[in-house]
Design goal:
Keywords: Oxidoreductase. The chain is α/β, with parallel strands linked by helices. The protein is built from 16 helices and 19 strands.
Length: 507
Amino acid sequence: MTVEALSPELETVVANAASATAILAATSPGARASALVAVADALEAAKPALVAIGMEETGLTEARLTGEVTRTAVQLRLFATTILDGSYLDARIDYADADFALGVRPDIRRTHIPVGPVINFSASNFPFAFSVMGGDSAAILAAGCPLIVKAHSGHPRLSDATAEVASAALAAAGMPAGTFQLIHGREAGVAVLKDPRIKAGSFTGSISVGRLLADIAASRPAPIPFFGELGSVNPVFITADVIAERATDIASGYLTSVAGSAGQLCTKPGFAFVPADSDLPAAIQAAAGEPSEHRLLDPRIARSYEERRTAILTAPGVRALVEGGIRFDEAGHGWATPTIVIVSLADFRASKEALVDEAFGPLSIVVETPVGTDLAALVREFFEGNLTGTLHISDAEGSGDSTNTNELRVLVNALSQQVGRVLFNGWPTGVAVTPAQQHGGPWPATTNDSSTSVGTAAITRFLRPVAYQSAPAAFLPEVLQDTNPLGVPQAIAPAGESKAWGSAARD
């Protein structure tokens, strides 16, 4: 790959980030945590003005955007707590052992350090929570890495306004110049990604663009890790027993999950597999009512949705349960109402190429499965990696007292092999911001199936391990010192235990 010289403006940005690397990495956990909290407080203080800009640029509702600012602030505060706890550093100490089972063992101590400057390509569908100061940005800063954000073209004014708030808060908190910077334009983002001073990248968006960027990161003379969250269709499996118990509630929840934010969510349920001849299709029609239309994010997304919707509706065997529709205004914006279609398993299988890919918008497909269908086999037959997989099961099935318990266990195992989060009796939209969350999955859900972009484990993407052997205490990072001045968790392997390894397994 040829690395071209950056423009003067981009050179300044990358040089500033590179210059901040060592200074930022050396900041105390307390200082870095305080800086994240300062950004969170500043965003909430600026919420009315930011939300107003977001409504103009994205068409998302005031309630949705207001809640998203809150979520963004919570993410920042969660990572502040994570920094102070220190568990994410995975500090390990193996004391020197003259009687080690394989000969003399030196003193070895291992922890994690920031990778260096990172570029984050922000998303269109979450203009706060996955944008300038969203989850990826919070994790990058928490890890101690200088951050360059490539603003999304769908909300440039909001990106600038958010960056202004964040920059002021970080500076007031004493973070070094170059800690955070914003750039615009796809070409600028690609140029920065190619620069050898950039040590990692993150992205939320389409499979095509994510793959392009991931390939660029991998083909650099010195490849770097790239963490992309891409496409997902999030299959749902609904049993006959649970339909008999609560068909109305399931239908209502399904429609709400599909229609929320006009279906422009990476966790929207794209497929619902239900027993043939069940009461759920009728319940879905009854629950649909007269839904209000919602503007899609931008004209390009609206046109793509219209094309995808038409392809699905014209596939053989597909029937509309809820017709829905899309209209375009004079500015080219698309306004959509939810579309729910139904198809037999046989027709779904015959039209797989036309139906199985993601429809980014308020559309979902109900697939009727004959009695005795091997649902786990369907997971393997139709789906690659996904962010989520969902099961709706009855009370008896949930207690394990059902004739199909073993079948459901096999289905759960099949889903766990292909998704990052398995849900029971809920809906995948609404990703809880909490330490144990997993928001990732095998390709094409993400470019790295061992990572998450939500939850405290997200910070590990922007760290790398380093071991120190026989190092004098004065040269050890504080987290590896015997005095442990930061009070972080340390996994200690004392001398004299190696010859007992494995003994417990013989009991």
